[in-house]
């Protein structure tokens, strides 16, 4: 007896399922709920209005209407347990159980499952707290730039970020702003992989698998893989990039291994298993699992299925796949092109009339409906993705041509679609096509190996990355003949321009061998920027040069994307560049890089100050991140000598890292850290330790009569240098002449300035006093490094009696500083003044976090630029003040905060919060309290006619603008004052008073007693009280 089948869903995938099931002689009728215009009354196929969200009602409907099989299309009902509920009610249902569907419904579960069962996937972390996720992004030694909402997000919960900052914003959007609702309660942060992406699906009966032909979809909206991500704009099948051998490997190491693992864990997987894979140079990696047919992959797979789909499903459900494997059409290719509404994936208009569908069907092309509806006898659009036009032909190119012709025949005003579906496969199948210079129309530039279209595509990809590096003086717009920079706009008065150019040497070969290109961008920028910095200059703009034999757009985009990210770190604009495609000059897969940086320094601040440098000056060393970008030709020989590969485990490094991982650690960029210190005048010279190592770089910034006396026992030497020294059998001198040996840069400072410089740097970087300058004796070496061999061999501090730098430097930075949080709502009034105060080496305060109740405000940017962590606790997301304050309190506890400053924080805190932080909560008010409390204090002062007003820093109390007074500063009220002019002068006073109050409380000089009165630890300081005084009044 023929069966009735119910397909759950209403998209193009469900239309394709219904279309294929209806071809079975064993199927009497196919119902689709809710369906679309394409499944409404088409032969055996019709729509049903039965509720699919209420599983009990659905089960009863199936029994009443003699439905013998339910096929579930989308992932949401699978995750909701539709298969479990219908099966329990006695209704056969095809698809995995809710527990098995966790492979898609929870990315956190999926990644942990792959880890448990040794299934290859990207490195990752799973987080329920946004700050932990952001910390992982910032500290991972690989590009942790893929941020995924763990739950179901309708295929939109994945964000591929261009840099760490964007990745952290994505975390906050997902977890704080709930961009994907409850799906984002947990996020997974993954390594960004590079390679070819393919979709490999299979039927699984719980113990065995039967793979389908591999397919590839196209997520980007526009031709050339440009534009925003979508749910999918087309697909093709099979993919020639996946050989039979590779498909067998995928079957064994991914598909079968997954089904075996699910069975071992007591959750047999029955249904369609979809593995999204990336084919990297290091091998295949699983990007994600789906627990159903993909859309639009389904629309190219089912037309190639030779077997009866109904029988395949029954065999799968009864565990007979081994004996009855599905059969597929060989020697055919399928292409489907999605037609979307104008405006998709953003907002779009519905109800647009669609015509010409019957003529398309007559041409041998199948149209599967997605977002369509019937209206007054016609078909209109009702969604973003509206139609998928599928063609099956003997070749991929002919299938694409037929599908495009079908699309052209559809009358759909404003439709958006791609014309290049399968372009990667076509290029793969015709690798030599671009090598023939002669065509029927004569010579072509592309035919001779230079693809201008690919270059243009690259430019479009990197334009937004470059734009993000804009800074004062430059808007970083690509596309012109030359770039412009406005020195006056950047704030310079009498500048000298400084330029530097460099490459990354043979580190390129390691990156190319490992297939990891993104980090080279930072290496390139660092080498140039740090050189410019050695002249005391601020890096202003950067240009890159990328040359190759044949342009791989993805590789080039990864490299230049790394350049752009590094420019943001360095504070310079990516102003332009050159991509040179030179056939025959470079071997396949090879490329070269060069960079050019221009900076500027005011004439009087130029480094080195040779006339000021003298015997006895001290050397401050800044830690390197490793080998940086020099000496890699020697490193390669060491690897050959040790018979090791880049993929070999780095036994000298953290567990799980390879030698390639360690060697590709990017070069440090020192500009943002050092510029404020260089501008202070405390540094006489700066040496960047590049090619030539310790022995040749430091003398470049010194007078000839002085020599360098270094002591390697004074700094930390990364283990990679000890490994190179041992495996290569290198001499102590060779190590010092070739490598930085742990010092990325060296500063020359006077002994009296050393403590200030050291303490300023130690808050952000590992630094040490590593040596001093001595008079150079005739014939003596200009650089002597003591104890280097001892340290490279794993030794600790210098042995007793060993000659070295005087250990009794006597410098000491404040051991314990009070941990401070600043709460803001906007620009962070007084925030910058507090930041500047806390930066001072003698300060008793350390600002550890800035918290805003509003996202995206200027104060958060100020904090980030100062290297301070930020958090957003959006008050609009909380149902009560108590819940909001509780979250603030948890963040404060997380950072170990001891003192809180309210700097323009526009929320009233609950009494319980104020009580908990009594004596640790500072606020400021623009009047001399107790006068003029509340809002509009300046207006109140003007209306009262007072001659003096000012500002007050006080401990916060439950009553508004009450609490014990810490500091007050008076401001005169001048004739003709307006609210605005008076406010400006009071604000200037606040910038002095608030930091002063912060120091008093943070140092313990002043404290609040339980009775609400202030107690001093020493006699109360006095300040002369002048009416117009700009001094704080205590």
TrEMBL record:
GO terms for molecular function: ATP binding; metal ion binding; phosphoribosylamine-glycine ligase activity; phosphoribosylformylglycinamidine cyclo-ligase activity; phosphoribosylglycinamide formyltransferase activity. InterPro entries: ATP-grasp (IPR011761), ATP_grasp_subdomain_1 (IPR013815), Formyl_transf_N (IPR002376), Formyl_transf_N_sf (IPR036477), GART (IPR004607), GART_AS (IPR001555), PreATP-grasp_dom_sf (IPR016185), PRibGlycinamid_synth_ATP-grasp (IPR020561). It comes from the Eukaryota. Keywords: ATP-binding, Ligase, Magnesium, Manganese, Metal-binding, Multifunctional enzyme, Nucleotide-binding, Purine biosynthesis, Transferase. One of its GO terms (biological process) is 'de novo' IMP biosynthetic process. It holds the Pfam family AIRS. Pathway: Purine metabolism; IMP biosynthesis via de novo pathway; 5-amino-1-(5-phospho-D-ribosyl)imidazole from N(2)-formyl-N(1)-(5-phospho-D-ribosyl)glycinamide: step 2/2; Purine metabolism; IMP biosynthesis via de novo pathway; N(2)-formyl-N(1)-(5-phospho-D-ribosyl)glycinamide from N(1)-(5-phospho-D-ribosyl)glycinamide (10-formyl THF route): step 1/1; Purine metabolism; IMP biosynthesis via de novo pathway; N(1)-(5-phospho-D-ribosyl)glycinamide from 5-phospho-alpha-D-ribose 1-diphosphate: step 2/2. One of its GO terms (cellular component) is cytosol. Residues 111-318 form the ATP-grasp domain. Coiled coil: none annotated. Its cofactor is Mg(2+). Its EC number is 6.3.4.13, 6.3.3.1, 2.1.2.2. Gene3D superfamilies: 3.40.50.20, ATP-grasp fold, A domain, ATP-grasp fold, B domain, Formyl transferase, N-terminal domain, Phosphoribosylglycinamide synthetase, C-terminal domain, PurM-like C-terminal domain, PurM-like, N-terminal domain. SUPFAM superfamilies: Formyltransferase (SSF53328), Glutathione synthetase ATP-binding domain-like (SSF56059), PreATP-grasp domain (SSF52440), PurM C-terminal domain-like (SSF56042), PurM N-terminal domain-like (SSF55326), Rudiment single hybrid motif (SSF51246). It catalyses: N(1)-(5-phospho-beta-D-ribosyl)glycinamide + (6R)-10-formyltetrahydrofolate = N(2)-formyl-N(1)-(5-phospho-beta-D-ribosyl)glycinamide + (6S)-5,6,7,8-tetrahydrofolate + H(+); 2-formamido-N(1)-(5-O-phospho-beta-D-ribosyl)acetamidine + ATP = 5-amino-1-(5-phospho-beta-D-ribosyl)imidazole + ADP + phosphate + H(+); 5-phospho-beta-D-ribosylamine + glycine + ATP = N(1)-(5-phospho-beta-D-ribosyl)glycinamide + ADP + phosphate + H(+). In the N-terminal section; belongs to the GARS family. Trifunctional enzyme that catalyzes three distinct reactions as part of the 'de novo' inosine monophosphate biosynthetic pathway. Homodimer. This is Trifunctional purine biosynthetic protein adenosine-3. The lineage of its organism: Eukaryota, Metazoa, Chordata, Craniata, Vertebrata.
């Amino acid at each position: 007896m023929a069966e009735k089948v119910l397909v759950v869903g209403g998209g193009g995938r469900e239309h394709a399922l219904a279309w294929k099931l209806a071809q079975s002689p064993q199927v009497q009728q196919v119902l689709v709920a809710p369906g679309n215009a394409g499944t409404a009354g088409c032969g055996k196929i019709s729509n049903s209005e039965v509720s699919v969200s209420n599983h009990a009602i659905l089960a009863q409907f199936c029994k009443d209407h003699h439905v013998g099989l339910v096929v579930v299309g989308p992932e949401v009902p699978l995750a909701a347990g539709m298969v479990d509920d219908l099966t329990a009610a006695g209704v056969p249902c095809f698809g995995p159980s809710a527990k098995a569907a966790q492979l898609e419904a929870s990315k956190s579960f999926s990644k942990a499952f792959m880890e448990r069962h040794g299934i290859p996937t990207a490195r990752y972390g799973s987080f329920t707290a946004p700050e932990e996720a952001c910390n992982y992004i910032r500290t991972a030694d690989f590009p942790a730039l893929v941020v995924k909402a763990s739950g179901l997000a309708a295929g939109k919960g994945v964000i591929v970020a261009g840099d760490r900052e964007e990745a952290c914003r994505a975390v906050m959007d997902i977890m704080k702003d709930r961009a994907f609702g409850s799906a984002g309660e947990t996020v997974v942060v993954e390594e960004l992989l590079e390679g070819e992406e393919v979709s490999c699906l299979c039927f699984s009966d719980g113990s065995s698998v039967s793979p389908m032909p591999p397919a590839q979809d196209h997520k980007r909206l526009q031709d050339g893989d440009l534009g925003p991500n979508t749910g999918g704009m087309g697909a093709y099948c099979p993919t020639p990039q996946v050989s039979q051998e590779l498909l067998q490997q995928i079957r064994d190491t991914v598909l079968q291994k997954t089904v075996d693992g699910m069975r071992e864990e007591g959750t047999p997987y029955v249904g369609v298993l979809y593995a999204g894979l990336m084919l990297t140079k290091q091998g295949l990696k699983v990007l994600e699992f789906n627990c159903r047919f993909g859309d639009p992959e389904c629309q190219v797979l089912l037309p190639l299925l030779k077997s009866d789909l109904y029988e395949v499903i029954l065999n799968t459900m009864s565990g007979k796949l081994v004996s009855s494997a599905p059969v597929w059409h060989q020697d055919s290719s399928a292409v489907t092109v999605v037609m979307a509404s104008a405006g998709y994936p953003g907002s779009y208009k519905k109800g647009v009339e669609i015509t010409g569908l019957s003529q398309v069907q007559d041409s041998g092309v199948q149209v599967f409906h997605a977002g369509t509806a019937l209206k007054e006898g016609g078909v209109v659009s009702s969604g973003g993705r509206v139609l998928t036009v599928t063609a099956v032909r003997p070749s991929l190119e002919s299938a694409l041509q037929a599908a495009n012709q079908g699309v052209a025949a559809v009358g759909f005003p404003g439709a958006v679609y791609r014309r290049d579906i399968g372009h990667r496969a076509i290029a793969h199948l015709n690798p030599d096509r671009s090598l023939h210079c002669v065509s029927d129309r004569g010579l072509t530039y592309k035919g001779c190996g230079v693809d201008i279209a690919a270059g243009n595509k690259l430019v479009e990809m990197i334009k937004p990355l470059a734009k993000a590096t804009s800074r004062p003086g430059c808007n970083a717009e690509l596309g012109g003949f030359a770039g412009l920079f406005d020195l006056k706009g950047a704030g310079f008065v009498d500048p000298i321009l400084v330029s530097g150019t460099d490459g990354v040497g043979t580190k390129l070969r390691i990156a190319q061998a490992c297939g990891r290109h993104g980090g080279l961008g930072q290496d390139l920028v660092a080498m140039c920027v740090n050189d410019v910095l050695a002249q005391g200059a601020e890096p202003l703009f950067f240009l890159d040069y990328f040359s190759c034999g044949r342009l791989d757009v993805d590789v080039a985009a990864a490299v230049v994307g790394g350049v752009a990210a590094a420019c943001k770190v360095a504070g310079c604009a990516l102003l332009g560049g050159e991509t040179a495609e030179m056939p025959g000059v470079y071997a396949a897969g090879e490329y070269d890089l060069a960079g050019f940086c221009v900076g500027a320094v005011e004439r009087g601040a130029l480094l080195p100050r040779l006339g000021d440098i003298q015997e006895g000056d001290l050397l401050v060393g800044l830690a390197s991140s490793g080998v940086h970008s020099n000496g890699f030709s020697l490193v390669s020989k060491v690897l050959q000598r040790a018979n090791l590969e880049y993929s070999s485990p780095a036994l000298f490094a953290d567990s799980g890292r390879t030698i390639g991982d360690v060697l590709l650690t990017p070069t440090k960029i020192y500009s943002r850290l050092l510029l404020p210190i260089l501008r202070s005048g405390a540094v006489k010279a700066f040496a960047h330790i590049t090619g030539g190592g310790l022995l040749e770089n430091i003398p470049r910034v010194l007078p000839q009569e002085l020599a360098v006396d270094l002591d390697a026992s004074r700094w930390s030497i990364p283990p990679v240098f000890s490994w190179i020294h041992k495996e290569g059998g290198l001499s102590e001198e060779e190590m010092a002449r070739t490598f930085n040996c742990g010092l990325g840069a060296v500063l020359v400072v006077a002994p009296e300035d050393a403590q200030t410089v050291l303490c300023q740097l130690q808050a952000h970087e590992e630094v040490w006093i590593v040596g001093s300058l001595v008079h150079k004796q005739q014939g003596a070496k200009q650089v002597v490094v003591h104890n280097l061999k001892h340290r490279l061999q794993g030794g600790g501090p210098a042995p007793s009696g060993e000659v070295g730098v005087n250990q009794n430097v006597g410098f000491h930075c404040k051991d314990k500083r009070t941990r401070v949080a600043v709460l803001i709502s906007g620009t962070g009034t007084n925030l910058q003044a507090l930041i500047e105060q806390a930066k001072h080496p003698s300060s008793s305060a350390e600002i550890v976090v800035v918290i805003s109740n509003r996202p995206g405000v200027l104060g958060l940017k100020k904090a980030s630029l100062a290297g301070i962590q930020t958090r957003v606790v959006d008050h609009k997301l909380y149902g009560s003040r108590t819940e909001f304050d509780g979250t603030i309190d948890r963040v404060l506890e997380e950072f170990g905060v001891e003192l809180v400053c309210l700097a323009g924080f526009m929320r009233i805190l609950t009494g319980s919060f104020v009580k908990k932080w009594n004596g640790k909560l500072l606020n400021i008010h623009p009047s001399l309290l107790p006068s003029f409390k509340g809002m509009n204090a300046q207006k109140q002062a003007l209306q009262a006619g007072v001659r003096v007003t000012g500002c007050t820093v006080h401990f916060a109390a439950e009553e508004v603008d009450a609490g014990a007074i810490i500091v007050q500063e008076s401001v005169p009220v001048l004739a003709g004052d307006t609210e605005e002019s008076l406010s400006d002068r009071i604000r200037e006073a606040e910038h002095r008073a608030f930091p002063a109050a912060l120091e008093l409380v943070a140092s313990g000089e002043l404290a609040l007693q339980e009775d609400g009165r202030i107690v001093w630890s020493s006699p109360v300081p006095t300040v002369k009280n002048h009416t117009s005084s700009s001094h704080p009044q205590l």
